[in-house]
Amino acid sequence: MQRNFFNLAATTALLGLLCTTQGAGAQDMAETIYLGGPILTIDDDMPRAEAVAVRDGKIVAVGSLSDIMALQDDNTKLFDLEGRALLPGFVDSHGHAVMGGLQALSANLLAAPDGKVTDIPSLQATLRDWMADNAATVEKVHLIVGFGYDQSQLTELRHPTREDLDAVSTDVPIIIVHQSGHFGVANSKALELTNVDADMPDPAGGIIRRQADGAPNGVLEENAFFFVLTNLLGGLGEEGLRAFANAGPKLWARFGYTTAQEGRTAPPIVEVMKSVASEGGFQIDVVVYPDMLVDRDYIADNVSEDYVNRMRVGGAKLTIDGSPQGFTAWRDRPYYDPVGDYEPGYLGYPAVKNEQVIDAIDWAFANNIQILVHSNGEAASDILLASIDTATTKYGPADRRPVLIHGQFLRQDQVDAMQRLDVFPSLFPMHTFYWGDWHREHTVGPVNAENISPTGWVRERGMMFGSHHDAPVAFPDSMRVLDATVTRRTRSGDILGPSQRVDVMTGLKSMTIWPAWQHFESDLKGSIEVGKLADFVILSDDPTAVDPETLDTLQVLKTIKEDVVIYAADTGQQDGALQNPANRVALASGGTPMDGHAFLHVTEAGMLKMIGAEPNAAHHRH
After folding, report:
1. Distance CA 597, CA 183 (A)
2. What are the Cα distances from residue 10, in Å, to 24, 170, 455?
3. In whole angstroms, how far apart are CA 527 and each of 39, 88, 150, 257, 307?
4. pLDDT of amino acid 583
5. Residue 140: what pLDDT?
6. I need a labelling partner for 297 at 20 to 30 A (CA). Which of 4, 314, 425, 457 fits?
7. Is the dihedral of CA 320, 325, 454, 593 positive or negative?
8. Residues lower than pLDDT 70 in the chain
9. What is the pLDDT of residue 611?
């Protein structure tokens, strides 16, 4: 009996070892073994490992080097990390992977560190330089587009006007897009071509800013801007959309994302995406959320948990209000010190009616369809949470995972309600870097600015959250997302809301396992565990081992989707497969994130097709 006991104990120990390494059977020898650097699994049961074994694009074992090497045979490829860090591929909690292609045909009007515009003269000079560099394009399409200006970063602290753009050209229409995507400025020619004049009333959910005589001054808010932009870019056509759909996910891959999101689109664009996907255009997964105010039946007919050619429709999108930094987010109290011509007590305004919000949430809950809702101001979140509360009572509990997008100006009682109603917060801590100083000085004031993007409040309640970039509002720069989530350091160097900071591992979870859960995909993504996809990112260093103040300097060196290298920083090319089994894969040092001028690689011919094709009814992005 004693001998049998020890035999049983030995067998149990062996099984325990296999469980520790999460090992596979002898018939499942590894195709690839990743080793030679820190491996952050994002698995609380085994936070770190020495090696990972992969077969058929999935993880078959995780654990110590000696145990994993037992799965090596003559055909196994050894992927040497050379001291670099391996993490699960990043999962996009909110962005616009397709419509990020807008910057492909735009002059870069961003402020530092992503551009060089500091004031209106430098903005004008950038437009002139772009015109000179792209003379053939301007002549062909008769349009100039600039992307990324931000009045809060201009010396003048105001939006440019039609006169400022007329100084660049009165013959060619010019439209420039605010970094938030919620505003734009048109020159006189662009206003003329879109019939925006003194007699045109403000559209619902939008404002045409005017001169004293009632004539438009060129600045357009929300739906007024979307009207002009979609008319000027109405010639995108299918070829242009295909170029966007091809280019956007490649950019996401440069920053380590293996799952991207197109967070607001319309059925015609989804159909183009399907066509691109069917031709192998997507090397990473793309989850799509069509605007539910456009076509609910289309969403209901197409929503799926299964990817086809690396894309799927994940649910519906609703937008309640606008931009906090642009003073169009709908608040429950006046803005602190808004810059511009605002009435006393100005609260911002909704983009939709309350009845539309209530009806949209009711429909989503009745059909058990996930809904993502853009809500920045407190008043917007009030109507959203009240609608969810009503729908939950009406239809009963279910695993619908509604998502509140952005939530810049949340109150603590609203976070309590989100916890009670199982609302997933996809927050935007990058605001603390790009607009934190502006929020402190102008939108909510020095007290309430401490609590924008309240990740600390969320974690105090034990809630998960996603940290996003909302590209093309900001680059899908994963390391800047992580840096902002952890440090909350603003452009000026201030730390905005120290109590809302989180540790590095929490920041990483908000970019991996938690947004994977948000998308109903945590059984396959978000951590390095047996049975999950071999979706990895290789960083230049271990983010948990460096000074948090240097997180934004870490580089994405390789992005790997299901055991295939799809991005390598040393060449910037999309690799078709790992190197020969006889060779160890060496990671190249160097390689930096793409600058604004190279935001997307689209040929001039492709750009011409984007604007020169026949007009269609492509829906705007927010």
Report:
1. 21
2. 19, 84, 47
3. 11, 5, 37, 13, 19
4. 31
5. 76
6. 425
7. positive
8. 1-27, 100-105, 234-237, 240, 571-622
9. 32
> What's the whole-model pTM score?
0.82
pLDDT recorded at residue 620: 30
Closest among 185, 167, 168 to 176, alpha carbons compared: 185
**Contact, 315 vs 521, CB < 8 A?**
no
Q: Using H for helix, E for strand and C for coil, what is the string for 230-275?
A: HHHCCCCHHHHHHHHHHHHHHHHHHCCEEEEEEEEECHHHHHHHHH
Task: Please give the pLDDT value at position 104.
Answer: 56
* Contact status, residue 503 vs residue 32, Cβ threshold 8 Å: no
**Number of Cα atoms under 13 Å in the Cβ half of residue 68:** 28
Structure tokens at 530: 């047996």
Encode burial over 245-273: b for 16+ CB neighbours within 10 A, e otherwise. bbbbbbbbbbbbbbbbbbbbbbbbbbebb
CA distance 608 to 397: 50
At 436, is the secondary structure helix, strand, or coil? helix
Token pair recorded at residue 448: 């309430």
Residue 505 CB neighbour total at 10 angstroms: 15
DSSP string, 185-234: EE-HHHHHHTT-STTPPPPTTEEEEE-TTS-EEEEEEHHHHHHHHHHHTT
